Hints:
- The chain is mainly alpha-helical.
- It has a single domain, classed as Growth Hormone, Chain: A (Up-down Bundle), CATH 1.20.1250.20.
- It has 15 helices and no strands.
- The longest helix has about 50 residues, at about 290-335.
- The chain is globular and about 65 Å long.
- The two termini are about 30 Å apart.
- GO terms for molecular function: transmembrane transporter activity.
Amino acid sequence: MIFINIVITCIALTMLATALSTALPAIASDLSIDMTTGQWLTSGYSLAMGIVMPLTAFLITRFPTKKLYVSGLLLALVGLVLCATATNFPMMMFARVLQATGNGILTSMAQVILLTIYPPEKRGSIMGWYGLSLSAAPVVAPTIAGIIVDLSNWRMIFYVVMVIVVISLIWALKVFDNVLDVSVKKFDVVSFVLSAIGFSGLTLGIGNIGTYSFMSFNSGGMLCIGLVALIIFALRQFKLSQPFLDLRVFKNKEYTMSVVGSMLLYLVMMGSTMILPLYIQTILGKSATLSGLVALPGSLVMAFISPIAGKMYDKLGMKLLTIVGALFLTFSNLGMFFINEQTSVIVAGLLNALRCAAIGCLMMPFVTWGSSKVPQHLMAHGTALLTSLRTIAGAIGTAIFVSLMHNIASHSQVGSTLANEMHGLNMTFLIMSGISVLLLVIGLSIKKESR
Length: 451
């Protein structure tokens, strides 16, 4: 019952990470904002999740499981109510931060809970099924959101998720137990502030590279502040007897590789998930429903692959799985480099399906593989680090790829406005192909016996 509740909750809340990508044109029009500002409703959501996730390592080991889980649901619910009734961008952005905070707590808790209550021999399979909610939901969300926007309006997206969260809250109150050990420990405010400044500075700095000069404060300045804060944060953790976030987990090579691999995967996944609807709606001028339907084959592929990803990991090992997944990811992104304004949207749908197959194969196996190398007493820290870093990577991917696409298009002189926009899209996916090759390099460097 706990597992089913976690899956339903994560499907509903994880959908919110990308649901607004399809609805963004309608939201931007309604709130009188431009697309660059509007995309922060998605990248800002991921950024807020990434900031709160390091905090979850403390919360999970300090507060009873049931109370913390219910608190996460209530935070998300308040955010949903505010989003559904928002009349301006600041109000909606604040509501998105509340949603992300609740989802960040729940996502980190879910993985620690499942890795604790199930024995090692079942973790691969159970994390594969859990991966269905974590990986398929962000991809299927634009499809559902597109249909909702065309049939009703963008606010209805939040009302639908609100109903699911209320049901999940009532269910959690009935079935949840305090399954994780807790201990009394002091909250390190300085470490939390440093991690928040570091992650937000890094994300904002990189995300603004496509909009501002690298030498400006908005880009290079924010990036420097973020890096300095993270360096101070890391040095502080090694000096504390009870670290806010125990970085000793990085001493394990396989865990470190799983974190880097997850970050690269999220960078491409969130970037492509945001850009595909913009290609269909903004560049080609098609409907939100068609945009969602183009993403549908990928959603179905991921829904099929995610539950069996754990078994694939057990059978093939992480090395072969990573190599095959990285090749699929590279080919799918490279294919988008060659499309033009005359290319059928069916091609984009098929390439997206190939991309989703790769993501479904790799997302949860990376978590299972990395977590299997972490001692039980460091499980909460290892999970919090992995989930926060990959979420930050997703926020960076959303911000930087949208900015790059618009920046390249605005400086292109290949022909008409449509041709320039297509050139921006092509070059952005070419960059994604290069990132996918880095994932292939990781796969080739994994030891064959690593599982």
